[in-house]
């Protein structure tokens, strides 16, 4: 089955082409047009600007992703229908539905969170896929691009159709979402924990702004934390770990942002901001990661998970990845972490989620008309 994935939930315009044959996945293309430079001056995503960029870029990104393929070759169109910025979502879904209508192709609307979870099944991008030469034609797929290899310090991506990894506990961490999702089997989810206010990614962005580190905040905080030196300990920087001792599996990061604000105000009475950046960044990152890992451990033990999956934009954080892998080893259960290329919003994960929906929910092709795709900016995964 050849699947075209389209992702425009926020500020990334992405189109991907994947093929699944006999439970073997081949990522033919995964093109992402980033808008970071457009939104950086504002310190965050501007919805109207994001939507305009999607309109301007979607056709060309699709053409690049399709390569030598034609829309007539496609067996299924998979598009992000929510949650996300409504203006951005409408651009992507309208484009996908127009393709489905014109070429009479089946189409599935995908929950963005389910897409992130599906990124755990995506293998590393091969050198052939990174090259600038034309993409292979359909009969060449599988001959040019070799199977995905093993990722360092984590388990291989699970096999499509392998039920031995379930039940799985999925930690989804991004700028808009921080959730613990219990995955009983393919396409069956239960929300067991979520943020009560701000997402972890949003906390990273706001803290980075306080420290004048730029946007996006996650990579900026991580890079600054790497600069920390032992002698910086004289600052005695300590931050709270919100809700780390609560019996539930929910999160809260709004209070942490406030604590960082007051910490910076106090320290800058004695030090220059440049002198405290590394210390505050290191402690803030540690506070966020500690909470995420402890809550994940508590949930995995309570729910008797057979595997742990990490996903979302914040899953690119080096410290978080290391701690989750360590947690899996300590609990003696498998741990899956997406390749860095698939941690941020991308269409390959949406295409694969569409395949899962089609296969494991046994949806007949005749039921997948363009009229069935509904855009919902607040779509809950369960």
Describe it for me?
This protein is of the alpha/beta class and 382 residues long. The protein folds into two domains: 2-152 and 344-372, 2-Layer Sandwich (Nucleotidyltransferase, domain 5), CATH 3.30.420.40; 157-337, 2-Layer Sandwich (Nucleotidyltransferase, domain 5), CATH 3.30.420.40. Helices cover 38% and strands 18% of the residues. It contains eleven helices and ten strands. The protein has a five-stranded mixed sheet with strand order 3-2-1-4-5, with helices on both faces. Strands 8-7-6-9-10 form a five-stranded mixed sheet, sandwiched between helices. Strand 1 and strand 2 form a beta hairpin. It is globular and about 65 Å long. The relative contact order is 0.19. The model is unreliable at 125-153 (pLDDT under 50).
Which secondary structure elements does this structure contain, and how are they paired or packed?
Blueprint: E1 2-7, E2 12-21, E3 24-34, H1 36-39, H2 47-66, E4 76-82, H3 86-103, E5 107-111, H4 112-118, H5 127-130, E6 168-173, E7 178-185, E8 188-194, H6 200-210, H7 217-225, H8 254-267, H9 273-303, E9 307-311, H10 318-331, E10 334-336, H11 347-360
Parallel strand pairs: 1-4, 4-5, 6-9, 9-10
Antiparallel strand pairs: 1-2, 2-3, 6-7, 7-8
Helix pairs in contact: 2-3, 4-11, 6-7, 6-8, 6-9, 7-9, 8-9, 9-10
Supply the key terms.
alpha/beta; 382 residues; 38% helix; five-stranded mixed beta sheet; Nucleotidyltransferase, domain 5; 18% strand; 11 helices
């Amino acid at each position: 089955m050849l699947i075209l994935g389209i992702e425009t939930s926020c500020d990334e315009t992405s189109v991907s082409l994947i093929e699944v044959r006999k439970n073997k996945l081949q990522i033919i293309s995964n093109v992402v047009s980033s808008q970071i430079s457009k939104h950086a001056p504002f310190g965050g995503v501007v919805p109207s600007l994001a939507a305009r960029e999607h309109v301007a870029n979607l056709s060309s990104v699709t053409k690049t992703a399709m390569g030598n393929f034609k829309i007539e070759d496609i067996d299924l169109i998979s598009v992000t229908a929510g949650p996300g910025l409504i203006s951005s979502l409408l651009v992507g879904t309208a484009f996908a539905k127009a393709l489905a209508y014109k070429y009479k192709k089946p189409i599935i609307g995908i929950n963005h969170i389910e897409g992130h979870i599906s990124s755990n099944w995506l293998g590393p991008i091969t050198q052939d896929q990174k090259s600038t030469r034309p993409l292979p034609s359909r009969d060449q797929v599988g001959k040019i691009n070799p199977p995905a290899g093993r990722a360092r310090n984590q388990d291989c991506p699970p096999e499509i159709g392998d039920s031995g990894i379930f039940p799985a506990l999925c930690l989804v961490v991004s700028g808009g979402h921080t959730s613990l999702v219990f995955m009983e089997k393919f396409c069956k989810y239960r929300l067991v924990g979520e943020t009560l206010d701000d997402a972890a990614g949003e906390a990273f962005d706001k803290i980075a702004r306080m420290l004048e580190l730029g946007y996006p905040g996650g990579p900026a905080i991580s890079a600054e934390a790497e600069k920390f030196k032992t002698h910086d300990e004289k600052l005695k920087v300590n931050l709270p770990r919100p809700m780390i001792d609560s019996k539930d599996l929910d999160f809260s990061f709004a209070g942490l942002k406030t604590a960082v604000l007051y910490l910076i105000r106090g320290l800058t009475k004695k030090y220059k901001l440049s002198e405290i950046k590394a210390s505050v960044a290191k402690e803030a990152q540690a506070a966020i990661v500690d909470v995420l890992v402890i809550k994940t451990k508590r949930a995995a033990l309570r729910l008797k998970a057979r595997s742990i999956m990490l996903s979302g934009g914040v899953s690119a954080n080096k410290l978080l990845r290391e701690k989750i892998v360590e947690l899996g080893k300590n609990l003696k259960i498998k741990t899956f972490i997406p390749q860095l290329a698939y941690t941020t919003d991308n269409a390959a994960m949406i295409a694969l989620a569409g395949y899962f929906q089609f296969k494991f929910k046994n949806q007949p092709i005749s039921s997948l008309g363009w009229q069935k795709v509904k855009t919902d900016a607040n779509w809950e995964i369960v």
